[in-house]
Amino acid sequence: MPETLFKIDLTKPMHAQEVPGHNRWHPEIPAVVNVKPGDSFRIECKDWTDGQIKNDDDPSDIRDVELSVVHVLSGPIRVEGAEPGDILVVDLLDIGALRGDEWGFTGIFDRENGGGFLTDHFPDAAKACWDLQGIYTSTRHIPGVKFAGITHPGLIGCAPSAELLATWNKREKALVDKGGPPWKPPIPALAELPNPKNAVLGTLAASEFDRVAAEAARTVPPREHGGNCDIKNLSKGSRIYFPVYVDGANLSMGDIHFSQGDGEISFCGAIEMSGYIDLHVDLIKGGVEKYGMVNPIFKPGPVEPQYSEYLIFEGISVDEHTGEQYYLDAHVAYRRACLNAIEYLKKFGYTGEQAYLLLSCAPVEGRVSGIVDIPNACCTLALPTGIFDKSILPT
Amino acid sequence: MPETLFKIDLTKPMHAQEVPGHNRWHPEIPAVVNVKPGDSFRIECKDWTDGQIKNDDDPSDIRDVELSVVHVLSGPIRVEGAEPGDILVVDLLDIGALRGDEWGFTGIFDRENGGGFLTDHFPDAAKACWDLQGIYTSTRHIPGVKFAGITHPGLIGCAPSAELLATWNKREKALVDKGGPPWKPPIPALAELPNPKNAVLGTLAASEFDRVAAEAARTVPPREHGGNCDIKNLSKGSRIYFPVYVDGANLSMGDIHFSQGDGEISFCGAIEMSGYIDLHVDLIKGGVEKYGMVNPIFKPGPVEPQYSEYLIFEGISVDEHTGEQYYLDAHVAYRRACLNAIEYLKKFGYTGEQAYLLLSCAPVEGRVSGIVDIPNACCTLALPTGIFDKSILPT
Amino acid sequence: MPETLFKIDLTKPMHAQEVPGHNRWHPEIPAVVNVKPGDSFRIECKDWTDGQIKNDDDPSDIRDVELSVVHVLSGPIRVEGAEPGDILVVDLLDIGALRGDEWGFTGIFDRENGGGFLTDHFPDAAKACWDLQGIYTSTRHIPGVKFAGITHPGLIGCAPSAELLATWNKREKALVDKGGPPWKPPIPALAELPNPKNAVLGTLAASEFDRVAAEAARTVPPREHGGNCDIKNLSKGSRIYFPVYVDGANLSMGDIHFSQGDGEISFCGAIEMSGYIDLHVDLIKGGVEKYGMVNPIFKPGPVEPQYSEYLIFEGISVDEHTGEQYYLDAHVAYRRACLNAIEYLKKFGYTGEQAYLLLSCAPVEGRVSGIVDIPNACCTLALPTGIFDKSILPT
Amino acid sequence: MPETLFKIDLTKPMHAQEVPGHNRWHPEIPAVVNVKPGDSFRIECKDWTDGQIKNDDDPSDIRDVELSVVHVLSGPIRVEGAEPGDILVVDLLDIGALRGDEWGFTGIFDRENGGGFLTDHFPDAAKACWDLQGIYTSTRHIPGVKFAGITHPGLIGCAPSAELLATWNKREKALVDKGGPPWKPPIPALAELPNPKNAVLGTLAASEFDRVAAEAARTVPPREHGGNCDIKNLSKGSRIYFPVYVDGANLSMGDIHFSQGDGEISFCGAIEMSGYIDLHVDLIKGGVEKYGMVNPIFKPGPVEPQYSEYLIFEGISVDEHTGEQYYLDAHVAYRRACLNAIEYLKKFGYTGEQAYLLLSCAPVEGRVSGIVDIPNACCTLALPTGIFDKSILPT
């Protein structure tokens, strides 16, 4: 086992750890771990909420979660010799649970607390707590399902440069100022702009704290550096190619998911957990220009769970409430595919909330199947039938 | 081999076939084939353009294609006993090329003739012609790639009821009247509304032709009945569950693709071909209500080509020209993922057009990876590395 | 579709075809097809018995089959420039049924007519006739099973040199003279030595017929050149590397199987059919020495049917009748694994004969799992559960 | 993480553990762990040699290993309510390395110390030591290869009844008395009969020790109860159905392999390691008769490493030294397939010993491809090309 370079005490919040991590993106947050290209090492992570959720049957903790705290990240990790324009090559050698904390949770965020993809249909907070049983998981809150995890860090990436950070802040503020698309529900919000409340900035000097906290980007969206991509296939054995923006790269990570469906639709939709990640790092000097890289690229690992039978639901970009036709809108089309799958699962005895939670965290595939056939986008949701303990095929 | 119930003479346009098919959707287009539940049979299909494209090196036929002709469909097929509210169960037993016509084409539509997903980046018509070599294909127009087909009908579905047709026409007209989203380029059009020009309506009585042609929906978009879904995984061995809207179901199909990538991004993006489809049909009486079905559902077949190594490109919903931030826009995010992959492939010697054509027709996977992390959607494009005759991994 | 270079008239036996094939191996059988490296072409094949078996419910044709006739092969194919020591690279581009002959048969050979792997347990002839339904097959003789084919030539290889032929004849005669291992049942025979009866030698001059027929090797066993390997994974899309022994290579093939289990245990155990094979050929000059090749090597194709759930049966090298312990004997161990699977399937309502036929032709995997743990070999038989229309898991 | 019910101190031999395991099979070895149906728990295991092999470059420890010590097993585990005739259902929830002991070894046993499958070709001891890097492994002793593990217990099974033990002892002694097949080399031995030397019998009362040690079966071969099956696919997530022979079942296990090829051909051929196994147990009362069970049956797990490209080597049952023809001998045929693969790999710069070690421990598939085509068995060895860092295809 590689040496653990970032340790977590699960009884303490991130800011009170012996070496604290961070929950904002900023180039000036100091590295707390130093490694060399070629090194392998272990990083421990708290769950994304910093331990706000309990393993019980009451979803009020989901409803009341303090979102200014998220996502708590482990790092930054300085890689010797890394310079802007390099590619940082990260191998995810292994990912697993911390001893004594082998459980996870999936939540539907309350409409009053951020909501999610289907918040108009499921406005109330709900929660499923999952037992992690080796490679498998099951939950008392959704009977009759069991599946193997495809564990991954929901969030991983290098620190932005000052310029890149400024770009993020500018464009996100412009969106808030301008407003979203016509179909946008009032919830979720358009964006989370910098917010000093509950900011954790690692070992940053106190003298710099207020300035940096006011500038630092929230961790919610995926951006050019990767970040909170929530890509379910970024699992054990993956090799990721990250653009480097600052000297030392300053890689951070967190938000470990035991499993997730494409889209992570309920927002807190993965099986969220604390855990460890074993990594190996290397550099491709000058790789960003050599390969015309904008966003990270990755090669998934060889041990993803295999299913040979799927039931696939189609969705098109027509609003389910108004019947309004949207133009090649893959967001609406995927929402319709999800709703179609939920309606179907209700015929097999699941509540809508159970189905919504399940599509969020089980290894469903969400595809952009057709994106050119005006005016409808066609998205599909593929549900592996093997996760159920009985047949869910039509008969 | 099952009996061929719909035959094609490749030397004649669809309207001049001995038994003509159709290129519009309308409940009154008469069935031309009759089958019973439990039957297996073969249907032959022309390519979607009705033979307008030639196997040569000149893309002017793509530029000048007459789009009022598309898509030419084989059918309708009446299934005895099928009634509105039933599910029509269709097994795609086999799909293949017609003897003597074993080739296909992929095109980039000209900005002046409809455009495609990336028309702002690739405004000019281009074409690749593919040799079909058993399960494999390759093309003189994109050297160094070869892959196995995942052959499927781009378009298949049952005839709409009069009510459903009226709904389609109303909502699509409303979209044209209202206009599209802010990022919409002037090309492609918002929608294709009913257009009598070049309408082919099978054996419909002449007395009804003008009325029906004025009402009948174009075949371009996927809709509730399925239709032009362009789902690459709807391949050999798939079982599809279709909602039935009219007595006899009136199933039609066409637009066979030897292979396609998720999204079919260049619009004429699959490897388009003529061919045959062997089908088996059955009914689930009253299945639509029993299973809460809105759109078709399907179970993919067991013989899709397998790849174990992918290179995956991420994209986020930020406009590539203006840097504008869009709100959870999976369309923009997938466009960025595609552009990132194209930029990467250009580093390996492909032109942008070659890369665009390749991502359209090779078996790439397009995923809605994260759709809740405000304000960015994250889409991914997974490129199987095994289709190239040399390594395309970063080094 | 490539040009058909070897055609079959299904109404005539092989010796009466316009251009006859052959049913023995000998370097002097003249090539009847000429191709160049880089060529693609189609070869048609009769079923291995030359049409002796009928699509009915009476297994007497299996019992009475004339085995001196087998295997009827299509070829030889001369490849220009091929010389001894070269590698002939053969791509199996496609394999399929002949129009109007879309069925196959699986037989248990009678103890009096050659027997098979489990002849002591199932001494009587039996037959299952399979309907080929596109990629799938099912049979009225074994209800409740349906699966996708993994179609392949049971037999393919280049003509031996005179020296290689002499080696074969010598060592096989020595075996007959010496006798087999202690566990050998009286049936099947030890080997089939050259037998002029019913020999078909293509276009060989009459003056040479008797001499060559007396020397020519039977086609039954796999040998250094490949030949009757009955490898189920040598399916569509495979690339095979064959050693060349004579000028022109003289490639022949036949014994097409729609599907087969590892081992082809009932001897006539595949789903035997007539059909066509589309091939592409090329040469690696001097490849045999360059790669130290003894037997053929191949790369399987990408479209094998996928299953994600198997039930696996173990077997060890202890005789099922006497309890005698054999020494690391994988033959006995695989027999026990097969018998264990048959016994299990009988608990689900199948007769022993049905189970034996099914394990012969369904895509079961037979593995040499442990071959060093004295004195027991451990072989396993993996049965894909998805071929059954109900669950066969223990409960 | 489930509770650890059997702990290992890596600094002590098995007999000196606080609760010792055992290295022989006998119904009277007392259970040391008690569980109930439905329980999940962790068992720790030493490597099969009880720590005799060192992580260095000197194979003399392989040459000098004391084989009377093997295999050291953890257990027996008593399952409440289990009775003879029941099926014990064992889920392998997870398998992994022990902290601080993340390495493994593969050895070629010396001809003077037991030998292996190819001992006539590779008579001298050799060793490769593997670094375990999360899901991957690589070794300084075989450059250019890296692969994901398919970790499994080489040995797991329930205690035999007195009657079953007597059967084993009787038939194995009869083999030794009678002698092996004609092709048998003088090494390895025919069988390992009961041997009190170095017997470890758990907590058995001293008064019974000598008698039991004289009766207890060696752990080397797989037998009816499973035992040392060395089945590489019995990995994470597998569900195994074991026959129960004694009250409480008395399940034991050990010989953990990080990875192994089918056959484990060099005898010490897996990547041998210490480790832990997380299990879940349940019972099917009376299941042995209900399902006609003789040997264990299992359902493999869903996370086996996936490869899409293999190079497959054929072998036939002709002796490589003498050219003698054997009768449908899958042992000889698989040996030839292995030798063909080794010869091939030598052309890419590996020594024969390196290739032999690699085929022993990498995830190669060994198939009984044809077992009825008299007189030759055809076995195949499928080598995943993705484990090499360069192409090994012929060109």
TrEMBL record, chains A, B, C, D:
It comes from the Bacteria. Gene3D superfamilies: Acetamidase/Formamidase-like domains (2.60.120.580). It comes from Acaryochloris thomasi RCC1774. This is Formamidase. Its EC number is 3.5.1.49. PANTHER family: FORMAMIDASE C869.04-RELATED. Keywords: Hydrolase. InterPro entries: FmdA_AmdA, FormamaseFmdA. The gene is fmdA_1.
